[in-house]
Design goal:
This protein has 16 helices and 16 strands. It is α/β, with parallel strands linked by helices. It folds into 3 domains: about 70 residues, Arc Repressor Mutant, subunit A (Orthogonal Bundle), CATH 1.10.10.10; about 140 residues, Nucleotidyltransferase, domain 5 (2-Layer Sandwich), CATH 3.30.420; about 160 residues, ATPase, nucleotide binding domain (Nucleotidyltransferase, domain 5, 2-Layer Sandwich), CATH 3.30.420.40. The two termini are about 30 Å apart. The structure holds zinc ion. Zinc ion (ZN) binds next to loops.
């Protein structure tokens, strides 16, 4: 913002435009005076910045709904159809695609199941579902980027998927493949670990908006972990950190898809839950089916949620002691395990160190199964939010 030491006037203005647009994108419509209060910028500067963003078509003003003494003040709002991104949640079983506008409005959404096939079949399916939603770009909108979540460790610089055990991938250049087959509009194709996007989404728009230290755990086939510490993502030296699903919790346990024995994922992943319920060989059974069975009194299903609830709690104890999080957000089937066996999770958590334990709140994801998808959209919006003028000029030029 304005405190950038040694920054030129242009740099200060670019940073201020970014601050105002980011605020409107994240928090929605608000008055100029509210923007003034939140950003600490002066009133005339805010007026000038809002006008500049309106000229770009990114925001508009309308009269407010609040009636009171004097004139109703103008409300500034983001224009969803001005800039859009393609968001992809590439999972083991299927890919979900969405076309998302500035401010978070979803213009189109589609899903494609993955059939058993090789890597090129899967890329073709991802490409197809992407083009399906891209056909819905509103007239006049700029497509400013593509964000993709994958269940694996990713070199974020170019989108090389280093290792995705549940997809059977090692060193797959997903970024290059999708740049060629789908593209990013005027922006890039950004590939990220799915849980890193999940924690970003929960921190920005979900259950952990007020927490600066957040642990997100997403359960799909595997278990992914994403971390925000002191308001910033924590990803490690190479960006490969947060793989909490591969914490070894049971050295004499089952062999994991990563090759090690006794990873947390082998106990609390979907396969672990079905195994505990004696249903590992049942075709096409979902977590919802298992929840229904348990609620209807199926003893094996109930016992599975309880024993897996213990394992969930045991891993959480280690993470609470290590990270001292304010919020732990559970997504995917982990949220169902917690809902079915809250006492088992809580009683394990009692063994965490008291000072850290007293501060932590465990909850289910408000975004449901969409945390990674929402995070993928947010990461794709980064370019236009960082530099609205530059991003839209390059969009016009391309
Ligand atoms: Zn493992």
């Amino acid at each position: 913002m304005t405190s950038l030491a040694g920054a030129t006037q242009d740099e200060v203005r670019r940073a201020n435009l970014s601050t105002v647009l980011r605020l409107l994108h994240q928090d929605g419509p608000q008055t100029r005076s509210h923007i003034t209060a939140v950003t600490g910028l002066n009133r005339s500067t805010v007026g000038d910045l809002v006008s500049a963003l309106a000229v770009l078509g990114l925001v508009r003003e309308r009269s407010g709904d609040i009636r009171g003494v004097g004139r109703p003040s103008l409300v500034v709002e983001p224009v969803p159809g001005s800039a859009v991104v393609l968001a992809l949640d590439l999972r083991v079983e299927r890919t979900v695609a969405a076309l998302v506008g500035l401010g978070g409005q979803v213009f189109a959404r589609a899903e494609r199941q993955h059939h058993d096939g090789d890597q090129s079949t899967l890329i073709a399916e991802v490409t197809q579902v992407s083009h399906e939603v891209l056909a819905e770009i509103p007239p006049g909108a700029s497509w400013v980027g593509t964000g993709v979540g994958v269940p694996g460790v990713v070199r974020t610089r170019d989108g090389l998927v280093r290792f995705a055990p549940n997809l059977g991938w090692t060193d797959v250049p997903l970024g290059d493949l999708l740049r060629a087959s789908v593209g990013g509009g005027s922006g890039d194709v950004l590939i990220r670990n799915d849980a890193d996007l999940g924690v970003l989404a929960e921190h920005m728009r979900g259950s952990a908006r007020d927490s600066s230290t957040v642990l997100y755990l997403g359960g799909d086939v595997g278990v992914g972990g994403g971390l925000f510490v002191d308001g910033r993502p924590l990803v490690g030296a190479g960006g490969y950190g947060g793989e909490v699903g591969h914490m070894r919790v049971r050295p004499d346990g089952h062999t994991c898809r990563c090759g090690a024995r006794g990873c947390w994922e082998t106990e609390i992943g979907l396969a672990g839950l079905l195994r505990a319920a004696g249903r590992e060989h049942v075709r096409d059974i979902s977590v919802t089916d298992l929840v229904t069975a348990a609620r209807e009194g199926d003893a094996a299903a109930r016992a599975a949620f309880e024993s897996v609830g213990d394992w969930l709690g045991i891993g959480l104890v280690n993470l609470v002691n290590l990270l001292n999080p304010q919020s732990i957000v559970l997504g995917g089937h982990l949220s169902a395990i917690y809902a079915m066996a809250p006492d088992r999770v809580a009683s394990q958590l009692q063994t965490a160190l008291p000072a850290a334990r007293e501060l932590v709140e465990v909850c289910s994801s408000h975004l449901g199964g969409d945390a990674t998808l929402v995070g993928a959209a947010e990461v794709a919006f980064t370019t236009v939010l960082d530099d609205p003028v530059g991003a839209l000029n390059s969009s016009v030029a391309s």
